[in-house]
Amino acid sequence: MLHVGDATGSDRHNSSGESNQERTIHVEPIYEAFLCPLTKKVMQDPVTIDTGCTFERVEIEKWFKKCRDNGKKITCPFTSQEIKSTTLNPSFALKNTIEEWRKRNEASQLEFIHRSLSPGNSESDILRALKYVQDICQRGKSQKHIMLAEEVVPMVSVMLKNGSEDIRCQALKTLRIIAEEDKDCEEAMVVGDTIRTIVKFLTYDTSPARGEAVSLLFELSKIESLSEKIGGVNGSILFLVGIACSNSENVSLVQQAEKTLENIEKCEKNVFQLAENGRLKLLLKLLLEGSEVSQLSMVSLLGDLILINESKVLVSQEAGSFLVGVMRSGSLQAKEAALSTLSHISSYKPSAIILIEKGILPPLVRNLFSFGSNQLPMKLKEVSATVLANIISSGVDFETIPLDHNQTLVSEDIIHNLLHLISNTGPAIECKLVQVLVELTSSPATVQNIVVAIKNSGATISLIQFIEAPQRELRIASIKLLQNISPYMNRELAEALCSTAGQLTGLIKIIFDEDGITEEQAAAVGLLANLPERDLRLTLQLLNEEAFSVIISKVRKIRQGVTRGGRFVTPYLEGLVRILSRITYALEDEPRTVTFAREHNLAILFSDLLQVNGLDSIQIVSALALENMSRQTEHLIRISKNPDPGFFCKFFPCLSSSQTMTGICEVHHGNCSIMDNFCLVEGKVLGKLIACLDHTNEKMVEAALAALCTLLEDGVDIHKGVCLLCEAEGIKPIFDILVENRTENLRKRSIWAIERILRLEDIACEISGDLRISTALVEAFRHSDYQTKQIAEKALKLIDRLPNFSGIFQTTG
């Protein structure tokens, strides 16, 4: 039987669409005897078995093995007869006949290939020709070499630029088949820009051509000279890395891309292209194992690369010790290259920690502080300072990491050297070293060491002067440093700011300079807020600079949503409110502050700020400010009752101005208002303060209670104060504070208030039966300090838990 369609490879429905070439090509048909009964394919190595049937050698051997493995009798797969002997007899005559048939057909196919693989032919002819090339080359190397000799490879390469996607895809597949396991063919197909054209197919995300291109590049990359050419094509490694790192469902594609990259890594000339795309294996190998020249080159290359964080960790792990060694004892040129690399990789916290483990700190500090003939050029000291700043930001406990002479990074001598270097170098190094101090003072474990060194070295003035530095980064770093140390040396900083010309003005200018809210402004506000709130000199200077007026405007704009500041708005607003509260600590000593508070309705502003939910510090500061202002109410009422009329008003009463009062206050027994004498009662603030007594933050509760206690102090009508608290439902929360006993300060404050509340006989009578409260008072009487015991004793007497004649402690006034 003849199989004409199979022999020609043409479609069976080719009556109307077949080209002239298809009709004229002469191909001998396939004879039935040529086909293996098992595979229905033309045999390569025909053999005959006992039954006289002929099969492909490999296929019949598989059949025999399958029978044995299954424990069955060996039979003929064609006749099912049992076979006694498995001897295979080669059919040389049939094999020769098939070979001659193939050669005749290949000649016809070659003629068709030459005619079809040229511009102007139909798509079907080109695809058929490419299929012929694939079939021929799959028969063995000798057929591939025929394709080479017939110059078919360049013709196929031209098809890579064809307008048809199907043709381009089949051309890639054809080239891959030609290249498989044949070095001669691989080298022949990369003439001209063929590799560049192949690489372009890697950009086709969804096209089958992309997979064929990767497979072809994998075959070509097996030859070192070709892998160099592949790596030299711009974008080739990047595209391959993208495919190898993708989450594609095509696992084979990903694996082939990775294997191609591994082949490319075997060529040293590809080191730069690989490294800049994150493939550092070859670079690190040359760095650690190469010649001295190669090592220096690789270090320099590392310094020029922009590494992702994962690569920074890899370099630190693999080459950290080598780089530290170069920094310790390498040539000046090598140190420069190593420092450049270290400045990059140390910027990522995990890699910085690895470098610390590799011993980077001692040589780094040594190089930074070296002087004389061995000192580094200032340019390299700047890079060393950058590395040190990166290392410090890792957050490691530097008290446990030894440097030279049994010192650590927070030893006083080391800090002195840093401060000396800051004072005697340029802005770039100054900035980095100040950043080092910023990081060290950010840790509670090391800040005290730095504060002691700054005090002993007298560096406060020098650091404050950086507030006016023209370099923004240096200015920000210095302000953050001053903010960090301000809780530990706030008096020294306040004195220095008030004593040095222009520094306080400069700080205020930074705070109010821009419409937005920057990191620099937030740090400047934080610094000023940490200074002693009772420092009258500083408060008056701020008042003279009109800082408080601007602060009020800023606070209101932030509250109204006019000013937005992203992640810095919260610390900025908190700092502004803390600075503004300074006014309330100066009310007793400076009349101008009273005038300012009245003119700007300060008590109302703080009352509103009590309701800023989620910002505990602002609520606490506001409550404390209201306490300060409320303490002045009685004093201001006395002044208003007997004002100094002035010289002219004594003779002309009509010239005196009347004050705006809202009514007679029950607690203060005077004309009170929230604006003029800061009366909490007339300002309707009691409800807001009482609401804060249920807060989870003990500091907030303490501040609110302290403000409420101003209505129970000597000098006011305590009876009326208690009644107002009772009407506002504020009595029970105060008793609850005592019972809960959350902190000692809260217990003291609540006992003081409760003793005064219990002076009202009705309340005392009601509370006397509450075992919880009496028990809490007894505990305070037994375990508190002397003064609190006395107050608790009075409270217990008021609820008849102690007889009046059994006073244990002396009565105090």
UniProtKB/TrEMBL annotation:
Residues 250-277 form a coiled coil. It comes from the Eukaryota. Gene3D superfamilies: Leucine-rich Repeat Variant (1.25.10.10), Zinc/RING finger domain, C3HC4 (zinc finger) (3.30.40.10). Keywords: Coiled coil, Transferase. GO terms for biological process: protein ubiquitination. CDD domains: RING-Ubox_PUB. It catalyses: S-ubiquitinyl-[E2 ubiquitin-conjugating enzyme]-L-cysteine + [acceptor protein]-L-lysine = [E2 ubiquitin-conjugating enzyme]-L-cysteine + N(6)-ubiquitinyl-[acceptor protein]-L-lysine. Residues 9-23 have a biased composition (Basic and acidic residues). Residues 29-108 form the U-box domain. Pathway: Protein modification; protein ubiquitination. Its EC number is 2.3.2.27. Residues 1-23 are annotated as: Disordered. One of its GO terms (molecular function) is ubiquitin protein ligase activity. InterPro entries: ARM-like (IPR011989), ARM-type_fold (IPR016024), Armadillo (IPR000225), RING-Ubox_PUB (IPR045210), U-box_domain_protein (IPR052608), Ubox_domain (IPR003613), Znf_RING/FYVE/PHD (IPR013083). This is RING-type E3 ubiquitin transferase.
